[in-house]
Design brief:
- The protein is an alpha/beta fold.
- About 35% of the residues lie in helices and about 25% in strands.
- The chain folds into two domains: about 130 residues, 2-Layer Sandwich (Nucleotidyltransferase, domain 5), CATH 3.30.420; about 90 residues, 2-Layer Sandwich (Nucleotidyltransferase, domain 5).
- Strands 6, 7, 8, 9, 10, 11 and 12 form a seven-stranded mixed sheet that branches. It has a five-stranded mixed sheet with strand order 3-2-1-4-5, sandwiched between helices.
- Helix 1 packs across helix 2 and helix 3 crosses helix 6.
- It starts with 14 loop residues before the first strand and ends with a helix.
């Protein structure tokens, strides 16, 4: 799937209020015509629900904006923390309904990947060929929420895999095997929540393999807003009533409930 990050803007400015709570970071931003006007990060993982409304109000006030000045609400739809994703989606649906604004959901993993990519190219860390950007969020028990994107310095950006939960060791082996078999892949970048998986992610970085870079990176809502801005310009939006988080897996509680139900049936 191709994601167009550069879209011809309309004649009047488009202002997007964007936020994501899929990780330990409560990330919020104001994006106008694809540019980040203001942003914030607050690491209050267990208190996102307490702080999100106040933080969004503060950010709007900082920019001198009122609800009527906002053109769209952008939300990181997940995957990620079950409770965290649910908080952002609920807040997004409530604001979109109350303010009568379009609701636009984007992949939290894609936002994480684009944010890290833009940071690196902003530092002029150039390379030739295609780079695979692999966002990582810890999912416990040796698993990660992840996907894969291809990018280069011409502005190309493409999703190669769907968002999902994968065993980190198996996923790393697959990526290195496929990259080594490809002539066009110059590097693999693992970005995001890599601390718990750094040894696993780098285990196949052999001297004769594709080079690996690792970038510890926290979610920035500016990327959420930019992705949503592109969707807005294409006339895309989500239905407020049917919009739900992308959990990618059943929660542990749901698995236990289903198992108990099966036992009762037997």
């Amino acid at each position: 799937m191709m994601t167009e990050l550069s879209v011809q803007p309309p004649s009047s400015p488009v202002t997007v209020l964007a936020f994501d709570t899929s990780t330990a970071s409560l990330a919020a931003a104001i994006v106008r015509d694809g540019m980040v006007v203001a942003s914030s990060q607050s690491f209050t993982e267990r208190n996102h629900s307490v702080h999100i409304v106040a933080e969004l109000k503060r950010l709007l006030a900082e920019c001198g904006l009122k609800p009527e000045n906002v053109d769209a609400i952008a939300v990181g739809q997940g995957p990620g923390s079950y409770t965290g994703v649910r908080i952002a989606v609920t807040a997004g649906k409530t604001l979109a309904w109350t303010w009568n604004k379009p609701l636009i959901g984007v992949s939290s993993l894609e936002a994480l990947a684009i944010g890290a990519w833009e940071l690196r190219i902003g530092r002029h860390e150039l390379t030739t060929g295609t780079v695979w950007i692999v966002p990582i969020m810890d999912a416990r028990r040796g698993q990660v929420y992840t996907s894969r994107f291809a990018a280069d310095y011409t502005g190309h950006w493409e999703a190669l895999d769907s968002d999902g939960i994968r065993i980190a060791a198996d996923w790393t082996g697959i990526l290195h095997e496929q990259a080594s078999a490809s002539d066009g892949v110059s590097e693999i970048w693992f970005v995001g929540d890599i601390a718990l998986h750094e040894q696993t992610l780098g285990m196949s970085d052999r001297q004769d393999g594709v080079p690996v870079r690792m970038l510890a990176f926290s979610m920035e809502a500016g990327a959420v807003g930019k992705l949503a801005w592109s969707r807005y310009l294409r006339g895309e939006k989500d239905d407020i009533h049917t919009f739900v988080p992308n959990y990618t897996q059943l929660t542990e509680a749901e698995v236990k409930l289903q198992a108990a139900a099966l036992v009762r049936r037997d």
